[in-house]
């Protein structure tokens, strides 16, 4: 009787083809649903055995058939175990890699533990299923993970036979880690009664004869004969052996561990060799790869986070900010990172309460649609502040913790100047704070220090270069700038950039003429034109003007200069506006620090500074992940001075947050000061560079501030009647209405957030609400987030969600093609309400010069007082009929804007008579910081 007429042939070749067709549909669906998502398998090979190469080519070919990208990474035989483990770890950490296999056997000179290597592959990427974690899952019946490929293929072939596995008796010959043991476990968890036979089993023939399902993986050619087999049994032959055969061209034939001819006459179904289990191993490998990739894709693109919320323990009266902050234990920052979809390789831990997020996450998430973008601004602030940061935190707590919306707050890092000066901290307040607030308010992850270092390195290079040019002849200067090192003389990359700008085509230092040497070597900086100051992150008024170069070693080359506060450095603005590392470097290279004696710009690139500054900022470019009191995510990044720069957190933080929250989520970011300063710069500078358009403006106000703008006191006397208070408020709401008017000019819906305080009355809230709606806001909501945390801002969150669905007709305040003077006048008249703008002849000449040098199409950053809509801090409410005086103008070419100084503006704040220093202390017994607020 022929085998074909007795036993059904279980063709692994046919089943693998069908499996691969299904896998191709899955990869196509992944690409379609997840914006071109590509499944990626990495095949690691050590050495170059011919048999391994055959298997690898087969895997690559099969991968291509199902739409899987397969990368073959081959290492030399000389690789060490440590090196190989390190390489595998790179692929474990690479989010673009979804599956990793290490081709066995390892063809190496060094003694490498193959079990250690297979266990080094991340269980989530171990598509061979050989990691001990995946084996353990199979052993305990958890079949949701990556199942070893050959055993899984065996099960699929058994199912193909039509036999019901449950209730059958199964015998497995062989107990290997790769096949026998996991096959037995799989059969067991498919409810078969399983016997495992091995080299020590007595009377194997008798055990085999009991099997309804027989799986043979014993490694002996044609070991099992048909006479052993129970009639009607299903036989799966996992072996592949070569026997001499002179009739074959190759001189050998391939056989399994079962004598096929005799067994096929007894069994009901049997796998051939070759063409049985082998093809299914590759199919299951690809199936595991697609499964692993699908899991990753679903995590990346999932619509809803599963945040573990930290409950608030509300107390009355509300304790101090630091007491509240310390009463809440932050969750481990890695837990939060994983909750919002970040991968471990994208998180750089700074302890367990804060972490840097690598910008590589942006590339991984690039195809995700952005979430809704909310900007927080405010009215003209008072000396007590109106609570923009507190409102930002309260709103995100309401959205993320209570409304279950994916939401991230993006905040600036506070400068230590205000922290030790007037504020004592800026982490929010009450039950709407970022924690740990001590970390937030102090060094955090060192970004401001990195900015300080980069800025001051540039300052040192400027003065040092002037000194060396003044004290050396052309050839000596050139020889030192382009030295011979180990017998080789060559230009550095940044020096080649300078040669190109000068039109010098030589790249061999020996080929330059004397004239070219002089042109290359001498920047000829005019000291009177230097605009680059040194910085420090401390309020120190006595550094507002200093003299440098007084040491005898500087040979009487003194000049007057000054220190700015670090957050006023152009580098801080660049950090906030750069979209990635490449953009950061380009902006750094464009910084103009002075003019030469011929009036040409001298840039950071001319000084050779670009790469060095980028190195100092390489970690600072990554946003810092923290959390609110309720355990919702916050990205803290950059802290540009809200006068001299644009006063908003970084673009990269907003971009990253927009991808992490997904299309149905929300990103809430803050613009410094009121709508006239912070919001205006946010739209006309930051939005131009980021490309992110807000869907809602939240305008924060307080009753006490509006009462002050109406002529009342911030702290009214107890003898003031309600009528007197309301009269001042009714006048003061004009300031709020002006800020609403400023906001609606951009075509974005405005929601007014009334930051409630205990002394407020219902009628005062009604006055503000009515005035808000009259001025064009779509809603005005009382929010008690300071007192109640996120639960106190639920109505505000609902209003923001509703507003974000409204149609928008966004427009910038001015066109970049407008002359600089007209841009300044437009801002002054439209945002501040100025009647006119005063320019002296020197300012007008500067503006004309900037336009002639190509800076005319940059946006304008007007620096003025935040305490009034005008340029005079003493004018409250809504000043009219005033003239805005322009005192100075300069270009921040790297940041990408022209700075206009309106009125008296200092870039170095001072300490008050009684700064917050007096309240800040360290408890030496507990290590706690005292006095931050």
UniProtKB/TrEMBL annotation:
The reaction(s) this protein catalyses: (6S)-5,6,7,8-tetrahydrofolate + formate + ATP = (6R)-10-formyltetrahydrofolate + ADP + phosphate; (6R)-5,10-methenyltetrahydrofolate + H2O = (6R)-10-formyltetrahydrofolate + H(+)
Q: Where in the cell is it found?
A: Cytoplasm
In this protein, which residues make up the domain named Tetrahydrofolate dehydrogenase/cyclohydrolase catalytic?
10-128
Metabolic or biological pathway: One-carbon metabolism; tetrahydrofolate interconversion
Q: Which Gene3D superfamilies match?
A: 1.10.8.770, Formyltetrahydrofolate synthetase, domain 3 (3.10.410.10), Leucine Dehydrogenase, chain A, domain 1 (3.40.50.10860), NAD(P)-binding Rossmann-like Domain (3.40.50.720), P-loop containing nucleotide triphosphate hydrolases (3.40.50.300)
Keywords from the UniProt entry? ATP-binding, Cytoplasm, Hydrolase, Ligase, Multifunctional enzyme, NADP, Nucleotide-binding, One-carbon metabolism, Oxidoreductase
Enzyme Commission designation: 1.5.1.5, 3.5.4.9, 6.3.4.3
GO terms for CC? cytosol
User: What's one GO MF term for it?
Assistant: methylenetetrahydrofolate dehydrogenase (NADP+) activity
Which GO BP terms, alphabetically?
A: 10-formyltetrahydrofolate biosynthetic process; folic acid metabolic process; methionine metabolic process; purine nucleotide biosynthetic process; tetrahydrofolate interconversion
Q: Give start and end of each Tetrahydrofolate dehydrogenase/cyclohydrolase NAD(P)-binding domain.
A: 148-295
PROSITE patterns in UniProt:
FTHFS_1, THF_DHG_CYH_1, THF_DHG_CYH_2
| Entry-linked PANTHER family | C-1-TETRAHYDROFOLATE SYNTHASE, CYTOPLASMIC, C-1-TETRAHYDROFOLATE SYNTHASE, CYTOPLASMIC-RELATED
Regarding protein family, the annotation reads: In the N-terminal section; belongs to the tetrahydrofolate dehydrogenase/cyclohydrolase family.
| Subunit composition and interactions | Homodimer.
Please report the name of this protein according to its UniProt entry: C-1-tetrahydrofolate synthase, cytoplasmic
Tell me which species this is from: Aphis craccivora
